[in-house]
Automatic annotation (TrEMBL):
This is MFS general substrate transporter. One of its GO terms (molecular function) is transmembrane transporter activity. It is found in: Membrane. Keywords: Membrane, Transmembrane, Transmembrane helix, Transport. Signal peptide: none annotated. It is a multi-pass membrane protein. SUPFAM superfamilies: MFS general substrate transporter. The chain crosses the membrane at residues 7-25, 37-56, 77-94, 114-137, 144-164, 170-192, 204-229, 294-317. The keyword Repressor does not apply. GO terms for cellular component: plasma membrane. Pfam families: TRI12.
Amino acid sequence: MRELDYGGAVLFTISAVLILIGVVYTTTLPSSDPHVIGTLVPGFVLLVVFALYETFMPLKQPLTPTRVFRRGHGRELTAPFIAAAVVTANYYGINVVWPTMINVFFTDATTDIHHAVVLTLPANLGLLFGAVLLSFFGTKIGHWRWTLTGSVAIMVLFGALLALGNPNRFGMMTAFVFLGQVGFGWAQYLSIAYVQFGTDQVELGIAGGLAGVARFAGGAIAISVYTTVLTNSQSKSAAELIPAAATAAGLSPDAVPALIAAMPLGADALAKVPGITSEIIAAAFAAFKQTYVVGLRTTALTSLAFGIVGIIACFCCQDISPKMNKKIEVFLENDVNAEKNKFH
């Protein structure tokens, strides 16, 4: 227990928390606000300190041994680690955009709950189908680096194409979500295998832990970025589109703040807005949907930035075909082959 890297764990945890808090702050505060700067700057500084600490401190059990990241000039573990993080990041992109589309574009207060549940199936079935395809055809196809690159490219492409979404494109969005999740289902499990093949047999614990860090860190960063982008872009668009639509339909500019405040509260609150009519309400809610068209388009295109990094990382990975064999590294000690074990 004394040899564990407590210092590295503390540095990484504090830096990650500060960075995520700073990103989330930007949903309500301008990027120049002291609260944003005061969390992001120390967070990134501590992250650099963590990297230096892991590199130069004489640790017996470092949290992230730098030697494993240097294996194969970074192609054995570092590139797969980045790819695994990006795969999870793009998964969260789809899972921010699609549920929001369901809630804003394709359902309303009168929608049957069973229909709303059915709308969640394309994403889940796509993920399952992709994983099943990998299980049945991964070994037969081989060429693991190229199938990883291809599956990530499919996920990234159809995740970015969700930027075309609007209330009139239900079928198109359903197909894109399904296909994007098929790519994720294949890429997720293969990327994990890639990370775990990135170290020696005796360091599988480190590889497994890093595979988890890649997924959870990638997911945490991505969900913070996506929600920030969606909130900021939708709010900015709402400040422009809703007043313009309401006044064009006949509402007095003085009543616009009351309309915006009443929209989330329902029909009773809307009825109290001075000069309100059914035409104004319809125009305002049409504009409201359009603000999400803008916000979701920006969010989906943001996922493309993550995805390009992931595709480049996949190209940099080594081919793991020589390792995908029936060789058993460790036998049970009560097995007839126990004497073959290097360590007992």
